[in-house]
Design goal:
SH3 type barrels, 2 domains, alpha+beta, 169 residues
Amino acid sequence: MSCALCSAETPLTAHPVPGGPHDAAIDLCATCIEQINGTPEPTHWRCLSSSMWSEDSAAQVMAARMLARLADEAWARDLADQLYLDDETRAWAENVAPVTNHRDANGVPLTQGDTVVLIKDLQVKGAGFTAKRGTAVRGISLVADNDAHIEGRVEGQRIVILTEFVKKR
């Protein structure tokens, strides 16, 4: 098998394509995943000129999202102008969460709505209690302007938690 975006014949990993059908994923190489989660290298993504026409709508969505991220490149704008997506697929492509660098204590990316577990007892300032190690915090919110902070409910209180003290469940 080859990477759904760049056609590389290397080991592949299922990569989720959020915002659309439940559990949608495409098989990608490590290079594509690294650049999707980090800073894209424009020359690598010229491959989108063929993968954007894939019959797999999840691959089309990822191609459209990468072309949007590369909009500073004239060739990427040209490809985006040529790309045809049906209404449902276009809505999915545009339904993307903002890119963040929120990561748990193990470096695992965190997303809005995740469940995390506290890895240390935490004194909650102003609330007068200690959030105990092992406490599950469901449905977290990411603090937009600070990658080191998340918000969640512990013992009925909405608190800010440092990402270094949680692990994704």
